Amino acid sequence: MLVVSSPLACRAADEDPLQDFCVALNANDPQITINGMLCKPAAKVQDYDFASQQLRNPGNFSANLGSAVNLASATTFGALNTQGLSIARIDFRPRGLNPPHVHPRATEVLFLAQGTLVVGFVSSAPQNRLFSKTIYAGDLFVFPRGLSHF
């Protein structure tokens, strides 16, 4: 008797979009949908739909954390709908914090505009290793999808 065992391939990622873009029909009035928000008809999409000034200013500062998050997502910037992307501006006061958190469906790329910041994440293998670094103005840092980071 011959027994063959092979591991099953598993994939947990968002599928590619079915169209070039799907600008949210009304980004300020989200509706329940299965994948993203309803699309504005492509013939009505304009160049200004792909631009935003939302991150020009900081968000509201948290007294406890000393940080302010201003998040642009499909609900606030319709062009992000179905693109698998959001972007945030985070401003820190001295010794301000962004608590550890996870994005289960997205990789995060951080660009530091000014100052110095300690960043890091914990890998699941090997053995919950901490990857941490002090970054400086102009630096980028990548937090892989699904890993706890700060």
Q: Can you describe what's shown?
A:
- Helix content is 0%, strand content 23%.
- The chain has 150 residues and is mostly beta strands.
- It folds into 2 domains: 19-63 and 72-89, no CATH class; 100-150, no CATH class.
- Strands 1-2 form a two-stranded antiparallel sheet. Strands 3-6 form a two-stranded antiparallel ribbon.
- A hairpin with a 7-residue loop joins strand 4 and strand 5 (130-136).
- This is Germin-like protein.
- Given as residue ranges, the uncertain stretches (5+ residues, pLDDT < 50) are 1-12
Instruction: Measure the end-to-end span.
Output: 53 Å
Q: Which band does the percent of strand residues land in?
A: 15-25%
By DSSP, the count of extended strands is 6
Helix percentage: under 10%
CA-atom Rg in angstroms: 19 Å
The structural class is mainly beta
Order of neighbouring strands in the sheet with most strands: 1-2
Provide mean pLDDT, rounded. 84
| Run of helices and strands | EEEEEE
- What is the overall number of helices? 0
Number of domains: 2
GO molecular function: manganese ion binding
Disulfide bonds: 22-39
Domain Cupin type-1: 53-150
Binding site for oxalate: 98, 103, 108
Core attributes:
Germin_Mn-BS; disordered N terminus; disulfide bond; 6 strands; mainly beta; 2 domains; 150 residues; 0% helix; two-stranded antiparallel sheet
